[in-house]
Design a protein that fits this description.
By secondary structure, this protein is an alpha/beta fold. It has a single domain, classed as Dihydrofolate Reductase, subunit A (3-Layer(aba) Sandwich). Helix content is about 25%, strand content about 25%. The chain has six helices and ten strands.
Length: about 180
């Protein structure tokens, strides 16, 4: 599994339940990384997405929620699953061929990306092989922060991209 997220200068993840910055470069990076793969997110993250992009196209959207009955009839799409099974990633990995058959937009070597929110990141980052972090070089007065100590589980980050707007880091698990 991999995780992917963006934070502001002070590790801010969101403000008032949504991402406060608009970065075409970060959105393009996110899209190119996650397209034709599986994305796992929490309920709040899913419902914070603009209506015109949810569920995320060309991806199998897995939404974790404790109240699955409430969402069974919400947004009926062929690439969207609401579940309370926080081990669904194991089910997907163990049944890769079935998922490839059922979801033809997935690439044959598809990956599973954790895409938020904070509780989902905190739960799944320790299980991820790779973490992609975009650091936006401005403060956005966020009210939700993600401060994760990568030093014990991950190698020193590789800088993938760096300019005046943002830096993209790649963390790899120490074997």
């Amino acid at each position: 599994m991999e995780a992917i997220y963006a934070i502001d200068l002070y590790n801010g993840l969101s403000k008032d339940g949504s991402i406060p910055w608009k970065s075409k470069k970060d959105l393009k990076f996110f899209y190119n990384k996650t397209k034709n793969n599986v994305v796992i997110m929490g309920r709040n993250t899913y419902f914070s997405l603009p209506d015109e992009v949810k569920p995320l196209k060309n991806r199998l959207n897995i939404v974790l929620t404790n109240n699955i009955d409430k969402y069974n009839n919400v947004d009926s799409h062929d690439n969207l699953i609401f579940t309370n099974n926080d081990k669904i990633y194991q089910l997907i990995i163990n049944n890769r061929e079935k998922y490839l058959e059922r979801y033809p937009f997935l690439i044959s070597d598809f990956k599973i990306f954790i895409i938020g929110g904070k509780n989902i990141y905190e739960q799944f980052i320790p299980l991820c092989e790779t973490i992609w972090v975009t650091k936006i070089k401005k403060s956005f007065d966020c009210d939700l922060f993600l401060n994760y100590d990568y030093s014990k589980q991950y190698k020193e980050p590789e800088i993938i991209d760096d300019d005046e707007e943002l830096t993209i880091f790649k963390y790899l698990r120490i074997c």
